[in-house]
Amino acid sequence: MGNMPDRTTTRPRIWMMLIALAAVVGPAAPARAQGFGVGMRMAWVTSDVLVEVDKIRFVGGQIRLGSGRVGLEVAIDRRSETLEAFNQKIVETPIQTSLILRMARGKIAPFLLVGPGWYRRRVEAIDGPDLTVSTTEFGWHAGGGLEVRPARHFGIHGDYRYTFLDFDNDDDIGGIVGGVFGKLLPGHKGSMWTFGGSFYF
Fold first, then answer.
1. Which residue range forms the structural domain that includes residue 107?
2. Whole-angstrom Cα distance, residue 19 to residue 26?
3. Buried b (16+ CB within 10 A) or exposed e, 55-84
4. Residue 146 domain-assigned?
5. Is residue 153 situated within a structural domain?
6. What pLDDT, on the 0 to 100 scale, is given for residue 86?
7. How far from 135 is each of 10, 45, 93, 114, 124, CA to CA, in Å?
8. Which of 13, 98, 158, 183 would bridge with 195, disulfide CB 3.0–4.6 Å?
């Protein structure tokens, strides 16, 4: 009951990061392709653990490039949580870059995605000494989704992706897919649902 997320500064910081990304990536978008999009999204993250845990919700945004079959997405999400009992504030800021492969062209387009991600976690004291501990993890992700373009300059998308893919999984899968074939199947540490919309220019 006491662990309530602090969202007072979430959206302004996200928009500041998106504007900075747009300034860097925007000039690379073809002027005639109308393939440069900026939007907001929500993400629900679940860790791959044996015990049942609640999904963690993030709020963020994305920049999308590309109007053909191949596109690029850069997304930033953020959540903060205040733990008064431990005198701690936790801020998580994952950044994902995804290569998007659209399976069709039109108003309804399924797509596949894959790319790297950087997952930053900062823990700071609420009161007392100014002590801050930050860590950043790197991991690959892959998944698929669907984008619907009800209008020429607006699109709605949702996707599911596995995060922290491990291509050197040493776990014994056993059965038919064990042994040599088991080495080819990646493991993962979590999964993510995302839903959002983008305005295209």
1. 57-200
2. 10
3. ebebbbbbbbbbbeeebbbbbbbbbbebee
4. yes
5. yes
6. 87
7. 19, 18, 11, 23, 12
8. 158
| 129 in any annotated domain | yes
* Residue in the structure block whose two tokens are 């797509």: 111
The one-letter amino acid code at 45 reads V
- Of 173, 197, 175, nearest to 185 by C-alpha is 173
| Adjacent-strand bridge partners of 187 | 166
Q: What's the number of domains the chain is made of?
A: 1
The CATH number linked to 174 is: 2.40.160
3-state helix, strand, coil in the chain (%, to 5): 15, 55, 30
Written as one letter, the residue type at 198 is S
Predicted local distance difference test score (pLDDT) of residue 76: 97
Encode pLDDT of 103-127 as tens digits: 988 899 999 999 999 999 999 988 8
Range in 66-70, 100-104, 196-200 with the lowest mean pLDDT: 66-70
CA distance linking residue 147 with residue 102, whole number of Å: 9
Tokens of residue 46, six digits: 């679940």
Which residue stretches of the chain are H helix? Answer: 10-25, 179-182
